[in-house]
Amino acid sequence: MYAQIKTKLAAKGLKVTMQRVAVYEALLNSKEHPSAEKIISVVSEKYPGISTGTIYKSLETLVDKNLVMKIKNDGDKMRYDAFIDSHHHIYIENSDKIIDYHDDELNELLDNYFAKKNIPNIQIENIRLEIIGKYI
Amino acid sequence: MYAQIKTKLAAKGLKVTMQRVAVYEALLNSKEHPSAEKIISVVSEKYPGISTGTIYKSLETLVDKNLVMKIKNDGDKMRYDAFIDSHHHIYIENSDKIIDYHDDELNELLDNYFAKKNIPNIQIENIRLEIIGKYI
DNA sequence: CTGCTTGCAAATGATTTGCAGGAAA
DNA sequence: TTTCCTGCAAATCATTTGCAAGCAG
Taking Cα atoms as reference points, which of A16, A81, A61, A19 lies closest to residue A44? Predict the structure, then answer.
Protein backbone atom coordinates (compact mmCIF):
# COMPACT_ATOMS: atom_id res chain seq x y z
CA MET A 1 0.00 0.00 0.00
CA TYR A 2 2.67 2.45 1.06
CA ALA A 3 4.81 1.58 -1.95
CA GLN A 4 1.96 2.26 -4.36
CA ILE A 5 1.09 5.54 -2.72
CA LYS A 6 4.69 6.60 -2.75
CA THR A 7 4.95 5.77 -6.44
CA LYS A 8 1.83 7.69 -7.31
CA LEU A 9 2.88 10.77 -5.42
CA ALA A 10 6.37 10.68 -6.89
CA ALA A 11 4.95 10.21 -10.39
CA LYS A 12 3.22 13.55 -9.98
CA GLY A 13 6.40 15.22 -8.83
CA LEU A 14 5.24 15.53 -5.24
CA LYS A 15 7.48 15.06 -2.26
CA VAL A 16 6.55 11.98 -0.33
CA THR A 17 5.79 13.16 3.17
CA MET A 18 4.11 11.14 5.84
CA GLN A 19 1.28 13.65 5.98
CA ARG A 20 0.44 13.22 2.33
CA VAL A 21 0.72 9.49 2.52
CA ALA A 22 -1.57 9.43 5.53
CA VAL A 23 -4.20 11.57 3.83
CA TYR A 24 -4.14 9.62 0.62
CA GLU A 25 -4.18 6.33 2.47
CA ALA A 26 -7.15 7.41 4.55
CA LEU A 27 -9.03 8.24 1.38
CA LEU A 28 -8.13 5.02 -0.35
CA ASN A 29 -9.30 3.08 2.69
CA SER A 30 -12.65 4.81 2.87
CA LYS A 31 -15.70 4.14 0.79
CA GLU A 32 -17.63 6.88 2.50
CA HIS A 33 -16.44 9.92 0.60
CA PRO A 34 -15.24 11.53 3.79
CA SER A 35 -15.25 15.22 4.55
CA ALA A 36 -12.03 17.00 5.46
CA GLU A 37 -13.11 16.88 9.08
CA LYS A 38 -13.49 13.12 8.95
CA ILE A 39 -10.11 12.73 7.30
CA ILE A 40 -8.55 14.88 9.98
CA SER A 41 -9.93 12.65 12.70
CA VAL A 42 -8.83 9.45 10.97
CA VAL A 43 -5.36 10.72 10.17
CA SER A 44 -4.91 12.19 13.64
CA GLU A 45 -5.35 8.80 15.26
CA LYS A 46 -2.43 7.46 13.33
CA TYR A 47 -0.32 10.60 13.37
CA PRO A 48 -1.27 12.77 16.34
CA GLY A 49 -0.32 16.39 15.99
CA ILE A 50 -0.86 16.68 12.29
CA SER A 51 -2.33 20.09 11.65
CA THR A 52 -5.62 20.78 9.96
CA GLY A 53 -4.09 23.31 7.62
CA THR A 54 -1.70 20.67 6.35
CA ILE A 55 -4.51 18.25 5.68
CA TYR A 56 -6.38 20.85 3.69
CA LYS A 57 -3.22 21.61 1.78
CA SER A 58 -2.61 17.93 1.10
CA LEU A 59 -6.15 17.45 -0.10
CA GLU A 60 -5.89 20.39 -2.43
CA THR A 61 -2.60 19.13 -3.80
CA LEU A 62 -4.06 15.68 -4.45
CA VAL A 63 -7.06 17.23 -6.18
CA ASP A 64 -4.82 19.44 -8.30
CA LYS A 65 -2.82 16.42 -9.40
CA ASN A 66 -5.95 14.46 -10.22
CA LEU A 67 -5.33 11.79 -7.66
CA VAL A 68 -8.49 12.67 -5.78
CA MET A 69 -11.74 14.36 -6.67
CA LYS A 70 -13.83 16.78 -4.74
CA ILE A 71 -17.51 16.17 -4.50
CA LYS A 72 -20.09 18.49 -3.19
CA ASN A 73 -23.35 17.81 -1.47
CA ASP A 74 -26.15 20.03 -0.34
CA GLY A 75 -24.50 20.60 2.98
CA ASP A 76 -21.68 23.01 3.50
CA LYS A 77 -18.71 20.70 3.55
CA MET A 78 -16.74 19.32 0.66
CA ARG A 79 -16.30 15.59 0.42
CA TYR A 80 -13.38 13.75 -1.14
CA ASP A 81 -13.11 10.64 -3.26
CA ALA A 82 -9.88 8.82 -4.14
CA PHE A 83 -11.54 6.80 -6.87
CA ILE A 84 -11.35 8.97 -9.91
CA ASP A 85 -12.53 6.65 -12.65
CA SER A 86 -15.86 7.77 -14.03
CA HIS A 87 -18.67 6.73 -11.78
CA HIS A 88 -21.91 8.04 -10.43
CA HIS A 89 -23.16 8.87 -6.99
CA ILE A 90 -26.32 7.93 -5.18
CA TYR A 91 -27.31 10.49 -2.61
CA ILE A 92 -29.47 8.99 0.09
CA GLU A 93 -32.25 11.34 1.07
CA ASN A 94 -32.29 12.64 4.62
CA SER A 95 -28.84 11.34 5.34
CA ASP A 96 -25.33 12.28 4.44
CA LYS A 97 -24.57 9.01 2.75
CA ILE A 98 -23.16 9.07 -0.75
CA ILE A 99 -22.83 5.71 -2.46
CA ASP A 100 -20.76 4.94 -5.53
CA TYR A 101 -22.55 3.57 -8.52
CA HIS A 102 -20.57 1.96 -11.33
CA ASP A 103 -22.45 0.90 -14.43
CA ASP A 104 -20.67 0.38 -17.71
CA GLU A 105 -23.86 -0.46 -19.54
CA LEU A 106 -25.31 2.85 -18.48
CA ASN A 107 -22.19 4.72 -19.49
CA GLU A 108 -22.35 3.16 -22.90
CA LEU A 109 -26.00 4.03 -23.23
CA LEU A 110 -25.28 7.64 -22.40
CA ASP A 111 -22.29 7.83 -24.69
CA ASN A 112 -24.35 6.52 -27.56
CA TYR A 113 -27.20 8.84 -26.80
CA PHE A 114 -25.05 11.95 -26.75
CA ALA A 115 -23.06 10.81 -29.75
CA LYS A 116 -26.26 11.10 -31.78
CA LYS A 117 -27.94 13.96 -30.00
CA ASN A 118 -25.41 16.67 -29.87
CA ILE A 119 -25.79 19.84 -27.88
CA PRO A 120 -25.15 22.99 -29.91
CA ASN A 121 -21.83 24.72 -29.19
CA ILE A 122 -20.94 22.36 -26.40
CA GLN A 123 -18.44 19.57 -26.35
CA ILE A 124 -19.17 17.08 -23.61
CA GLU A 125 -16.21 16.08 -21.49
CA ASN A 126 -17.86 13.97 -18.86
CA ILE A 127 -21.24 12.97 -17.53
CA ARG A 128 -22.03 12.22 -13.95
CA LEU A 129 -25.35 11.12 -12.60
CA GLU A 130 -26.63 12.28 -9.29
CA ILE A 131 -29.15 9.70 -8.29
CA ILE A 132 -31.32 10.77 -5.42
CA GLY A 133 -32.87 7.86 -3.65
CA LYS A 134 -33.78 6.30 -0.38
CA TYR A 135 -33.45 2.94 1.26
CA ILE A 136 -36.42 0.66 0.78
CA MET B 1 -45.79 38.49 -12.47
CA TYR B 2 -46.41 39.92 -9.02
CA ALA B 3 -49.83 38.27 -8.88
CA GLN B 4 -48.40 34.84 -9.66
CA ILE B 5 -45.64 35.19 -7.14
CA LYS B 6 -48.04 36.33 -4.51
CA THR B 7 -50.28 33.36 -5.20
CA LYS B 8 -47.42 30.91 -4.99
CA LEU B 9 -46.13 32.29 -1.73
CA ALA B 10 -49.58 32.35 -0.21
CA ALA B 11 -50.26 28.80 -1.36
CA LYS B 12 -47.34 27.71 0.79
CA GLY B 13 -48.63 29.58 3.79
CA LEU B 14 -45.97 32.26 3.58
CA LYS B 15 -46.55 35.90 4.26
CA VAL B 16 -46.21 37.98 1.15
CA THR B 17 -43.51 40.52 1.89
CA MET B 18 -41.80 42.70 -0.61
CA GLN B 19 -38.46 41.13 0.28
CA ARG B 20 -39.64 37.65 -0.58
CA VAL B 21 -41.31 38.80 -3.73
CA ALA B 22 -38.15 40.57 -4.79
CA VAL B 23 -35.97 37.54 -4.18
CA TYR B 24 -38.30 35.16 -5.94
CA GLU B 25 -38.78 37.55 -8.82
CA ALA B 26 -35.03 37.96 -9.23
CA LEU B 27 -34.66 34.21 -9.46
CA LEU B 28 -37.50 33.79 -11.92
CA ASN B 29 -35.98 36.48 -14.10
CA SER B 30 -32.55 34.92 -14.17
CA LYS B 31 -31.38 32.02 -16.24
CA GLU B 32 -27.94 32.13 -14.67
CA HIS B 33 -28.51 30.22 -11.48
CA PRO B 34 -27.32 33.14 -9.42
CA SER B 35 -25.43 32.95 -6.17
CA ALA B 36 -26.82 34.61 -3.06
CA GLU B 37 -24.36 37.42 -3.61
CA LYS B 38 -25.68 38.03 -7.11
CA ILE B 39 -29.25 38.00 -5.88
CA ILE B 40 -28.36 40.50 -3.19
CA SER B 41 -26.96 42.88 -5.76
CA VAL B 42 -29.93 42.53 -8.10
CA VAL B 43 -32.50 42.89 -5.35
CA SER B 44 -30.67 45.81 -3.77
CA GLU B 45 -30.98 47.86 -6.93
CA LYS B 46 -34.72 47.63 -6.78
CA TYR B 47 -35.05 47.77 -3.02
CA PRO B 48 -32.08 49.54 -1.49
CA GLY B 49 -31.48 48.77 2.14
CA ILE B 50 -32.64 45.20 2.07
CA SER B 51 -30.37 43.24 4.37
CA THR B 52 -28.27 40.29 3.38
CA GLY B 53 -29.52 38.24 6.29
CA THR B 54 -33.06 38.66 5.06
CA ILE B 55 -32.13 37.51 1.59
CA TYR B 56 -30.49 34.40 2.96
CA LYS B 57 -33.56 33.76 5.07
CA SER B 58 -35.86 34.27 2.11
CA LEU B 59 -33.82 31.90 -0.01
CA GLU B 60 -33.88 29.27 2.67
CA THR B 61 -37.61 29.62 3.07
CA LEU B 62 -38.18 29.28 -0.66
CA VAL B 63 -35.98 26.20 -0.75
CA ASP B 64 -37.81 24.67 2.21
CA LYS B 65 -41.11 25.20 0.49
CA ASN B 66 -39.84 23.70 -2.75
CA LEU B 67 -40.26 26.82 -4.77
CA VAL B 68 -36.56 27.07 -5.43
CA MET B 69 -33.72 24.59 -5.52
CA LYS B 70 -30.16 24.88 -4.34
CA ILE B 71 -27.47 23.73 -6.68
CA LYS B 72 -23.91 23.06 -5.86
CA ASN B 73 -20.81 23.71 -7.85
CA ASP B 74 -17.15 23.24 -7.27
CA GLY B 75 -16.72 26.69 -5.87
CA ASP B 76 -17.65 27.69 -2.38
CA LYS B 77 -20.93 29.43 -2.99
CA MET B 78 -24.35 27.92 -3.38
CA ARG B 79 -26.34 28.78 -6.46
CA TYR B 80 -30.11 28.98 -6.71
CA ASP B 81 -32.61 27.95 -9.37
CA ALA B 82 -36.29 28.87 -9.46
CA PHE B 83 -37.10 26.27 -12.07
CA ILE B 84 -37.76 23.14 -10.14
CA ASP B 85 -39.07 20.81 -12.80
CA SER B 86 -36.65 17.99 -13.42
CA HIS B 87 -33.82 19.11 -15.60
CA HIS B 88 -30.11 18.71 -15.94
CA HIS B 89 -27.18 21.06 -15.71
CA ILE B 90 -24.25 21.62 -17.99
CA TYR B 91 -21.20 22.89 -16.11
CA ILE B 92 -18.87 24.76 -18.42
CA GLU B 93 -15.28 23.96 -17.59
CA ASN B 94 -13.08 26.77 -16.41
CA SER B 95 -15.97 29.12 -15.94
CA ASP B 96 -18.77 29.52 -13.50
CA LYS B 97 -21.50 29.07 -16.07
CA ILE B 98 -24.21 26.54 -15.41
CA ILE B 99 -26.62 25.95 -18.27
CA ASP B 100 -30.00 24.24 -18.03
CA TYR B 101 -30.53 21.19 -20.14
CA HIS B 102 -34.05 19.88 -20.69
CA ASP B 103 -34.45 16.63 -22.57
CA ASP B 104 -37.60 14.57 -22.29
CA GLU B 105 -36.27 11.86 -24.56
CA LEU B 106 -33.28 11.44 -22.27
CA ASN B 107 -35.47 11.37 -19.20
CA GLU B 108 -37.58 8.65 -20.71
CA LEU B 109 -34.50 6.67 -21.66
CA LEU B 110 -33.21 6.87 -18.10
CA ASP B 111 -36.56 6.00 -16.59
CA ASN B 112 -36.81 2.93 -18.76
CA TYR B 113 -33.28 1.92 -18.03
CA PHE B 114 -33.68 2.10 -14.28
CA ALA B 115 -37.10 0.52 -14.40
CA LYS B 116 -35.42 -2.63 -15.68
CA LYS B 117 -32.12 -2.42 -13.88
CA ASN B 118 -32.95 -1.89 -10.32
CA ILE B 119 -30.45 -1.05 -7.64
CA PRO B 120 -30.63 -3.31 -4.60
CA ASN B 121 -32.22 -1.73 -1.51
CA ILE B 122 -32.55 1.65 -3.14
CA GLN B 123 -35.63 3.36 -4.43
CA ILE B 124 -34.78 6.05 -6.93
CA GLU B 125 -36.52 9.35 -6.39
CA ASN B 126 -34.85 11.50 -8.98
CA ILE B 127 -31.98 11.52 -11.41
CA ARG B 128 -29.98 14.57 -12.36
CA LEU B 129 -27.16 14.70 -14.85
CA GLU B 130 -24.15 16.83 -14.32
CA ILE B 131 -22.74 17.29 -17.77
CA ILE B 132 -19.26 18.72 -17.79
CA GLY B 133 -18.41 20.33 -21.07
CA LYS B 134 -16.82 23.21 -22.81
CA TYR B 135 -17.67 25.57 -25.61
CA ILE B 136 -16.50 24.48 -29.00
C1' DC C 1 22.02 22.43 -0.19
C1' DT C 2 17.41 24.54 -1.42
C1' DG C 3 13.01 24.51 -2.52
C1' DC C 4 8.87 22.32 -1.43
C1' DT C 5 6.17 21.27 3.05
C1' DT C 6 4.60 21.66 7.57
C1' DG C 7 2.64 23.76 11.81
C1' DC C 8 0.68 27.37 13.84
C1' DA C 9 -2.39 30.91 14.48
C1' DA C 10 -4.65 34.48 12.48
C1' DA C 11 -7.62 35.73 8.51
C1' DT C 12 -11.29 35.02 5.33
C1' DG C 13 -15.79 34.85 3.66
C1' DA C 14 -20.13 32.71 2.94
C1' DT C 15 -23.88 31.75 5.65
C1' DT C 16 -26.44 31.70 10.22
C1' DT C 17 -28.28 33.44 14.38
C1' DG C 18 -30.44 36.22 18.26
C1' DC C 19 -33.30 39.56 19.19
C1' DA C 20 -35.96 43.86 19.20
C1' DG C 21 -39.01 46.30 16.37
C1' DG C 22 -42.28 46.04 12.28
C1' DA C 23 -45.63 44.46 9.23
C1' DA C 24 -48.89 40.82 7.15
C1' DA C 25 -53.06 38.27 8.09
C1' DT D 1 -54.14 41.33 17.74
C1' DT D 2 -50.88 37.77 17.04
C1' DT D 3 -47.79 35.50 14.58
C1' DC D 4 -44.49 35.68 11.33
C1' DC D 5 -40.77 38.56 9.21
C1' DT D 6 -37.08 41.95 8.84
C1' DG D 7 -32.78 44.51 9.95
C1' DC D 8 -28.77 44.65 12.24
C1' DA D 9 -24.61 43.16 13.95
C1' DA D 10 -22.32 39.64 16.01
C1' DA D 11 -21.28 34.74 15.63
C1' DT D 12 -20.09 30.46 13.13
C1' DC D 13 -17.38 27.45 10.90
C1' DA D 14 -15.20 25.34 6.93
C1' DT D 15 -11.42 26.53 4.52
C1' DT D 16 -7.33 29.51 3.37
C1' DT D 17 -3.20 32.04 4.19
C1' DG D 18 1.41 33.99 5.75
C1' DC D 19 5.47 32.89 7.47
C1' DA D 20 9.26 30.78 10.04
C1' DA D 21 11.19 26.36 10.74
C1' DG D 22 11.70 21.49 8.89
C1' DC D 23 12.61 17.88 5.84
C1' DA D 24 12.66 15.36 1.18
C1' DG D 25 15.25 15.00 -2.86
Answer: A19
- HSE toward the beta carbon, residue A82, CA cutoff 13 A: 21
pLDDT in tens, B36-94: 999 999 999 888 889 999 999 999 999 999 999 998 877 778 999 999 888 999 999 87
Strand C contacts (CB < 7 A) among A residues 35-64? 49-54, 57-58, 61
CATH label of the domain that carries residue A135:
3.30.1490
Indicate the pLDDT class of residue A85, thresholds 50, 70 and 90. confident
Q: CB of B135 within 8 Å of any CB in chain A?
A: yes
Which residue minimizes Cα–C1' distance to C14?
A: B77
Same domain, yes or no: B78 and B89? no
Among B58, B84, B110, give the residue marking a domain's end: B84
Q: Is the pLDDT of residue A109 over 80?
A: yes
- With CA atoms as reference, report the closest residue to B53 among B64, B40, B43: B40
